[in-house]
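Protein in question kept in full:
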Amino acid sequence: MLRIGITGGIGSGKSMVSHIFRVLGIPVFDADSTAKQIMETDEQLRSAIIQAFGRESYTGDRLNRKHIASLVFNDAYQLTLLNSLVHPAAIAAADAWALEQHAPYVTKEAALFFESGSATGMDYIIGVYAPRHLRIKRVMDRDGITREEVLLRMNRQIDEEIKMRLCDFVVLNDDQHLLIPQVLTLHERFLAESREQGD
């Protein structure tokens, strides 16, 4: 079974592209939401987070996101430490999920494919690209935050131009190109390749 990654910077439109694949009947694993979930449900991961960031990392069974954010958002070392704990668990969850699917191919949406090492094991990675000014506006409108806050988030991800060069395919979500035809072209390609693998 083909495994396809979907990535892009904040505000690029990864979720919109993933939604189109879902409408086409292709399963999508949302790595970012799964990571948040397993930080609360995986006992081994919870223990590691408490050991690294203190007991105040959790309020009862719930992750204390405010506490974690205050520690990692302006400290590259602490952010790397958190990611080193969470990413292996999220990758393992994605692998287990993929084995349960019965579609011609599956997709996995993640913001940090290359940064986390989860690009390994993917057959192809699709990059979703939008110009920087458009991404900033989208995130400001979506999250109700300032330009400066958006830029802080962007600065925690690798440069968008570099990320797109690392991808096998790039979907343009720049308000100039239609998304659906681009995704349909990729869908047909992946279907054909999965049929060839089955022969």
